[in-house]
Amino acid sequence: MSKRTHRKNDLVLAIAPSSRGFGFAVMEGMITLYNPAVLMLEDAPAKGSRRSRRIRNVTKKIIATAASRQAEVALLSRDQVMRAFFKDGIGSKHTIARILAMRFPEELGHRLPPKRKPWRSEDYRTGIFDAVALAVAKQLWQE
Questions:
Q1: CA Rg value for the chain
Q2: CA separation, residue 52 to residues 7, 19, 45, 58, 93 (Å)
Q3: Which terminus of the chain has fewer CB atoms gathered within 10 Å of its CB, N or C?
Q4: Beta carbons of 90 and 68 less than 8 angstroms apart
Q5: Nearest Cα to 46, choosing from 136, 134, 135?
Q6: Which CB contacts under 8 angstroms, 24+ apart, belong to 1-9?
């Protein structure tokens, strides 16, 4: 991540590509529309990442688009996101989603998906929480 300091009103766009599409969140107020100061993405090529080749390719294209707009890109691995929310790094995506729904009740409270059963696919709303988790984790890492 960059050492650049950010003003309080800088926008952060976080994108979480998934097999069902993608979730995105604009924190503090898409690349062309919002003109963010920072674009947050999961570090798909990071060691231990289980992201598919398609998601890694989408991530590369998003980074290239951001670079063409001179937007700063910050990458966090899934492990870094987990450690931002849990000191020992052990937790679940659903627990993070609950934390975020409580922190942003008006924006996210009604979007909290039910806890996933092992035999079910991930709820489409999970991508929103993944994106917000990236943006919040970035803020937590800077503190």
A1: 15
A2: 35, 8, 9, 10, 18
A3: C
A4: no
A5: 134
A6: 1/74, 1/75, 1/76, 1/138, 1/141, 2/72, 2/74, 4/72, 6/37, 6/38, 7/37
Asked if residues 36 and 11 have their Cβ atoms less than 8 Å apart, the reply is yes
Which overall architecture, per CATH, does domain 12-113+122-142 show? 2-Layer Sandwich (3.30)
Domain ranges in the chain are 12-113+122-142
Q: Could you read off the pLDDT tens digit of each residue along the chain, which spans 143 residues? A: 344 444 545 778 888 888 888 888 887 646 666 677 788 999 987 777 888 889 888 888 889 988 888 888 999 999 999 999 999 999 999 999 999 999 999 999 999 999 999 999 999 899 999 999 999 998 887 76
What is the model's pTM?
Answer: 0.78
Angle at 95 between CA 48 and CA 78, to 5 degrees: 20
Q: Which two tokens stand for residue 11?
A: 């926008």
